[in-house]
């Protein structure tokens, strides 16, 4: 079945573009704040690297690089592959693990509130025939639940200290599941050789500026926050590790 590409080059509303740009900058701001609590120099490197990457994605998107659907391998792979390789590098290297283990859990938890404006953006894109309904909270996307619960979880875990680490770990695991669900939906509805759904209204928005920032930056940042949090929370379970807790991370934030 051939996807409907009538909206592949249709421009999106300026107000919706601006809303998503602000959402991306909010994500970057929270990532920078978390890195700044570890070291100023590290935060500056995160900021510069992020801005360079976002600029590169923007330039490529404006040149319709990701809309060249006949390219092999698909150009879209670049947008998601580079940040994933970076995350893997931070996870498997000693220096990367040493840095991520110091990132404050309270900020990493609150970062997930950006998933609320992300889901609102996706709904707006659906209304303008840029993504299929299945990618919204009216379809098969329940990721907004993670965004709504994030401030509640952060409040009870770090402010009230009434949420045990195991429940914070469970919330992160469930939220990762919600994230992976929408990622699979988005990838399989993109008009690429492996498309499996959304043929009548395929996911063309993420091939454009500024929405290429969603798979290229926002989603990897959200995934990174979960991976770091899960790593910190399971560390006390591992043999020979030093016990830690959400309250300890909260104190380090202050």
Short description:
The chain is mainly alpha-helical.
Poorly predicted spans: 242-254
> Number of DSSP helices?
10
Q: Helix-strand pattern, N to C?
A: HHHHHHHHHH
Mass-distribution shape: globular
Largest sheet: none
Structural class of the helix and strand makeup?
Answer: mainly alpha
Beta-strand content bin = under 5%
Q: Can you count the beta strands? A: 0
Helix content: 55-70%
C-alpha Rg, in Å?
19 Å
User: What average pLDDT do the residues reach?
Assistant: 92
Distance between the termini: 56 Å
- Give the count of structural domains: 1
Keywords: Membrane, Transmembrane, Transmembrane helix
Protein name: TIGR02206 family membrane protein
Organism: Spirosoma flavum
Transmembrane segments: 14-34, 46-66, 72-93, 170-192, 212-234
Describe this structure in words.
- With 254 residues, the protein is an all-alpha fold.
- The protein has one domain.
- The chain contains ten helices and no strands.
- It comes from Spirosoma flavum.
What attributes characterize this protein structure?
10 helices; disordered C terminus; about 65% helix; about 250 residues; mainly alpha
Helices and strands in order, then pairings?
Layout: H1 14-36, H2 40-62, H3 76-92, H4 94-100, H5 105-110, H6 115-127, H7 144-159, H8 165-188, H9 213-234, H10 246-253
């Amino acid at each position: 079945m051939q996807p409907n590409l009538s909206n592949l080059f249709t421009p999106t509303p300026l107000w919706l573009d601006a809303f998503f740009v602000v959402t991306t900058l909010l994500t970057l701001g929270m990532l920078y704040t978390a890195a700044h609590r570890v070291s100023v120099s590290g935060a500056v490197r995160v900021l510069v690297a992020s801005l360079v990457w976002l600029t590169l994605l923007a330039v490529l998107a404006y040149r319709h690089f990701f809309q060249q659907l006949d390219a092999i391998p698909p150009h879209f792979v670049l947008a998601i592959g580079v940040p994933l390789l970076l995350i893997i590098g931070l996870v498997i290297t000693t220096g990367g693990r040493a840095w991520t283990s110091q990132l404050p859990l309270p900020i990493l938890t609150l970062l997930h509130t950006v998933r609320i404006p992300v889901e609102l953006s996706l709904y707006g894109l659906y209304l303008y025939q840029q993504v299929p309904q299945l990618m919204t909270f009216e379809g098969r996307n329940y990721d907004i639940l993670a965004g709504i619960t994030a401030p509640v979880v952060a409040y009870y875990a770090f402010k009230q200290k009434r949420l045990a680490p195991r429940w914070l770990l469970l919330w992160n695991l469930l939220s990762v599941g919600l994230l992976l669900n929408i990622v699979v939906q988005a990838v399989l509805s993109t008009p690429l050789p492996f498309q499996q759904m959304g043929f009548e209204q395929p996911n063309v928005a993420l091939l454009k500026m500024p929405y290429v920032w969603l798979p290229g930056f926002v989603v990897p940042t959200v995934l990174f926050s979960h991976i770091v949090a899960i790593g910190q929370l399971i560390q006390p379970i591992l043999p020979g590790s030093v016990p830690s807790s959400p309250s300890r991370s909260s104190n380090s934030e202050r």
